[in-house]
Amino acid sequence: MSDIQSLLALQNDDLAIHELETRLAALEPRIRELDVRRQRIVDGLTRQSGLVAAEEKKQAFLRDKIEEHRGLIDRNQSQLDLVKTMRQATAAASQMEQAKQIVVSEESDLLVLNRKLEELRGVLHRAQADLVACEAEQETARTEVAADRAAIDGDLATAALQRTGTAEAVPVALRTRYDRIRNKKRVQVLVALNALACGACDTAIPMQRRHVMMSGTTIELCEVCGVLMYQPV
Ligand SMILES: [Zn+2]
In terms of domains, do 199 and 86 share one? Predict the structure, then answer.
C-alpha cells in the first residue's frame, strides 16, 4: 500500500470517528431539553407549595382568632347573666355585640381564604400530576438517549481500535504531519487535487511542482489553506 493509500485509510477511520463524536454531541441538547422541561415543572411546584403553605398559615391564624373571639362572646354571655344593674347590662351587651361582629367578619375572611386555598391547592395538584406525567413520558426518552449513547460509545471504542491498526501502516513522519493539521474543525486533511488545483481552496498548484505531483506518489502541503494534497491516479 502506498503512503497516500494508507493515509487515506487513516483519514477514513478519523472521519468515521468524527461522525460518531458528532452524533454523541447531538445527544446533549436532547438531554438538556428533557432536564429543562422537568425543572420548569419542579420550579412551578416549589413556588406553588410556598403559596399554599403561606395561605395555610394565615388560615390557622384566623381560625385561632375566631376561636379566641368566640370564647370572649361566651364569657360576655356569662357576665351578662351576672350583672345587677341596667348600665352593666347595656355595657356587657354592647361588648358582646362587638365581639359577634368581629367573629362574623373573621368568618367571612376565612371563607374567602378557604376558597383561595382550594384554588391554590388545585393548581398545586395539577403541577404534581404534570410532574408525574412528565417523568413517565421522559422515562422512555431518557432510556432511548441512554441506549443511543451506549451504542455510539461501543462503536467509538471499535473505531478507535481500528484506527490504531490503520495508523501503524502510515509512516511516522507523515502521520505526525497529518495529526498536526487535523483538528475538530478540519477533519478533511488529505485532499485530492482537482484539475491541478487544491481540492479544498481551489488554489492552482505552482508550475514547478506540477510534474512531481502528477506522478501520484507525493503528498504536498497547500501553502494557502494548509491541507495535504495528492493526485489521484
Ligand atoms: Zn488549499
Answer: no
